Amino acid sequence: MKLRVGITGQNGFIGYHAVQQLRLFPEKYEIIPFKKEYFNDPAGLQQFVKSCDAIIHLAAMNRGDEKDVYATNVSLVKKLIAAMGTAGAAPHILFSSSTQETRGNLYGNSKKEGAELFAAWAEKNHAVFSHFVIPNVFGPFSRPYYNTVVATFCHQLTHNETPRVDVDAAMNLIYVGDLAKEFIAHLHDETSAVISPQPVAEISVSGLLAKLEEFKTWYFEKGMIPALPTRFDVDLFNTFRSFANDIIPIYPELHTDPRGAFVEVMKEMTGGQTSFSTTVPGITRGNHYHLRKIERFCVVKGKALIRTRRVGTDIVNEYEVNGGKPACIDMPIYYTHNITNIGDEELLTIFWINELFDPNDPDTYYEVV
Known about the structure:
The protein has 369 residues and is of the alpha/beta class. It has eight helices and 22 strands. The strands form six sheets. Strands 2-1-3-4-5-8 form a six-stranded parallel sheet, with helices on both faces. A five-stranded antiparallel sheet has the order 18-17-20-15-22, with no helix packed on it. Helix 1 crosses helix 6 (176-185), helix 2 crosses helix 3 (66-87) and helix 3 runs parallel beside helix 4 (106-125). The mean pLDDT is 94.
């Protein structure tokens, strides 16, 4: 029997990633839709909590007037508790708190008080309460000037703005994909607990900016994939790439002489593999996406249509490319993609990916563009 999971704030930064991770296991989980309007609709909120076996409570206000942040976050918790009381529901609650809950600021206090309210409710109703104390979260599709300084710096560096370090503090960072997996790993817990997900890295604000500026230099100015020696580097680079305005072709220089042509498809400071495929006219390859892999396509012979779509959206990007003017198309994570031979001759495509293929961990998920 499927576990029915509701996510408040499912359209937010962390919520988006939690939904996408749950979608990978349709045989185990049913995602109960949530609308933010439910918090002002008692009947709708009651129906929502009755429909859930577990609720991941992510909805919160992170920025703004401190008093409004505090009042809003505590109010959302109280509304959930009231709805569960009226509906006679006692789902497992997984609460997204913060390491700031011990720092005395109003945002941290709102999280601390929310956790206390949920803990008291769970004890009274013999329910399970998972209290997640979470460090700074970063990852693709986060909001600049709101979610995290990582998002702000990435946005500024990809939009011709100049980042500035105001306070050079040390930060513990956790990747949003890892956090989503933590939530899923604890969905079936049978006892209440405080859970402290481990950060993937500790870095200063200035150190973070220096690393992102290096990414910009290598990727946008030199056209090369930078050295990515650690898992954190890969996650941070994928986050950085997600802030480009769009997936645009990169046109490498075409060197020609009487013998033919030579094109440097990929210059990289990291490991991985390069391969190629041939495709007969009318055939489509792909229709899948990745959660961590960095991948580049380059058509060197024939005519192709490359299509991409960010999972969870219906906006499709289309790029018509041909071997006469080779173009490199990079595939961001969470973008399902395919390639179709739209010409009359055999299509020859070179593929580069930053890691060797592992059949036990392919990081390849089927979804039609």
